[in-house]
Write a structure and sequence with these properties.
The chain is mainly alpha-helical. It has one domain. Helices cover 80% and strands 0% of the residues. The chain contains 3 helices and no strands. The chain is elongated, with a radius of gyration of 17 Å.
Length: 98
């Protein structure tokens, strides 16, 4: 049981870091959209490629709001929810298994 507990604690820590990093990547992409960057820039392409799968799914569900893209905001709220709900549950479960 100790191995599973440590695995869950490590999983929660890594998941927390990944979610934080992805949230910042979404924020950077949203900020870049305000300045109309060069679409052939490798950094811009990386940001687009890493965020578009999630944001496009959210855009399919959200109704169009006259040119305002709220998909980054919804994605960030989803990440915050996961960080506030899932991560503590994984930590608590790991402590209970010890």
């Amino acid at each position: 049981m100790f191995i599973i507990a440590y695995f869950l604690k490590a999983l929660a820590t890594v998941l927390d870091m990944v979610l934080s990093l992805y949230m910042w990547i979404i924020i950077i992409r949203a900020l870049l959209s305000w300045v109309n960057p060069d679409p052939y820039n490798p950094i811009v392409r990386f940001l687009y490629n890493i965020t578009e799968p999630v944001l496009s799914r959210i855009r399919r569900v959200l109704p169009p709001l006259g040119g305002i893209d709220l998909s980054p905001l919804v994605a960030i709220l989803g990440i915050v929810f996961l960080k506030q709900f899932l991560i503590p549950v994984l930590y608590e479960l790991s402590y209970q298994l010890r």
